[in-house]
Amino acid sequence: MKKLFCWLMILGGLTAVNCTATDKLAVAEPISSSKMRASDLAALWGILESSINSKEYQLISRAALKQMLTEIGLVHSSDLVNLNEKQKAQLGKLSGVKYILVSELNQLGSKINCTLRIIDASTGEIDQQRTANLRVDSIDELADRIEDTVSKLLADNKNMARSALLQPYSKSGALPEFMSTEFSSRLEAALINGGMPLQNLQSVKNILEKNKLGALEKMEPKTYRKVGELLEVKNLIMPNISRYEVVATKYNVSESGASGTYYTGYLEGSVRVIETASGNVVGSIPFETKVEFRKIGRSITKDWTEKDYTKYMVSESLKQLTPALLKLPAFKNK
Fold first, then answer.
1. Span 119-142, mean pLDDT?
2. How far apart, in whole angstroms, are the C-alpha atoms of residue 287 and residue 259?
3. 3-state secondary structure the chain
4. Burial 192-211, CB ≥16 within 10 A → b, else e
5. pLDDT tens digit sequence for 73-91
6. CA 298, CA 242: separation in Å to the nearest integer?
7. Comparison of pLDDT for 226 and 184, the residue scoring more
8. Which has the higher per-residue pLDDT, 283 or 206?
9. Distance (Å, rounded) from C-alpha 212 to C-alpha 292?
């Protein structure tokens, strides 16, 4: 019996340690400045609560949160984003709550806009790196996207530090679709294999098109913040192709009478990294690739098309480009 009692005490102690190690989280009642339906706000509140990972956070009850807010003189959830210094100090003393999740739901034309903010309860300050903005067509679509977004906001390793790779552009004119796709897909794979967290390439394209955001290279710096919120990323990786060309050169050898054509490929440009919060360029890597295809061997290239030449040039370019990108300070905390 004594041994059994000892084991029970040990197990009980471990359980207690696990419980106290779980941070407490409060989900405030959603607010609205555009008179959203009460049923939509109630639905969002429930969605947010159910999206919390119980292994990482202990969700406190609505009644407990209401009592806490009353103790520091707050009546509505909206008051949480406008705390005075005294209230911030008092908030940090309440029941060991680590974070408070505040949400705002508004109708913008035919769209529903949901803004999520994380308040650090110890300071009462909104963590600007832990904010997200979701623009959707319906509450159902919002429900589909909430869990992943909340998970990123609450992650201590700041998963919002992901980057988005954009389709390459050219100032000299539109690039062939196959070239753009080849460059993007190969660079995406190379960066992911190098350990860089990226937003899904197809998702990036769909989100930008859905929100009618094109020609990002021409945007004002302040606009990048909106793009970052839509894509839920810290950085934008923007390839620019300044030269893409396969040159055919005819040759004749007078001694032997041999003649033919050999090809030389050129792929040049740069990749800029833009921080979405500021719109600043935080990295720029130029690349310049020249490939003399006759050195590869005619037996290999005799049936090649333009797409085959392009694949080879892109592959050669990424050998110098990818390692340089991964070393940029902008990605040192990836």
1. 84
2. 33
3. CHHHHHHHHHHHHHHHHHHHHCEEEEECCCECCCCCCHHHHHHHHHHHHHCCCCCCEEECCHHHHHHHHHHCCCCCHHHHHHCCHHHHHHHCCCCCEEEEEEEEEEEECCEEEEEEEEEECCCCEEEEEEEEEEEECCHHHHHHHHHHHHHHHHCCCCHHHCEEECCCECCCCCCCHHHHHHHHHHHHHHHHHCCCCECCHHHHHHHHHHCCCCCHHHCCCCHHHHHHHHHCCCEEEEEEEEEEEEEEEEEEECCCCEEEEEEEEEEEEEEEEEECCCCCEEEEEEEEEEEEHHHCCHHHHCCCCHHHHHHHHHHHHHHHHHHHHHCCHHHCCC
4. eeeebbbbebeebeebbeee
5. 887 777 787 888 888 887 7
6. 28
7. 184
8. 283
9. 41
Q: Confirm if 251 and 262 have CB atoms less than 8 A apart.
A: yes
Write the CB contacts of 238 (distance below 8 Å, at least 6 apart in sequence).
166, 169, 216, 217, 271, 272, 273, 274
Q: Across the strands, what pairs with 272?
A: 238, 284
Q: Which amino acid does the sequence have at 64?
A: A
- The tokens describing 152, both together, are 């990123």
Residue 287, both tokens? 């690349």
CA 182 to CA 82: how far, in whole Å? 49
**What pLDDT does residue 133 have?**
82
- The owner of tokens 């004119």 is 173
Q: How far apart are CA 88 and CA 121, in angstroms?
A: 8
pTM: predicted TM-score of the whole model, two decimal places:
0.55
Can you say whether the dihedral through the CA atoms of 312, 315, 318, 319 is positive or negative? negative
Residues shown for the chain: 334
Amino acid identity of residue 83, one-letter, is L
Residue with tokens 């390692």: 323
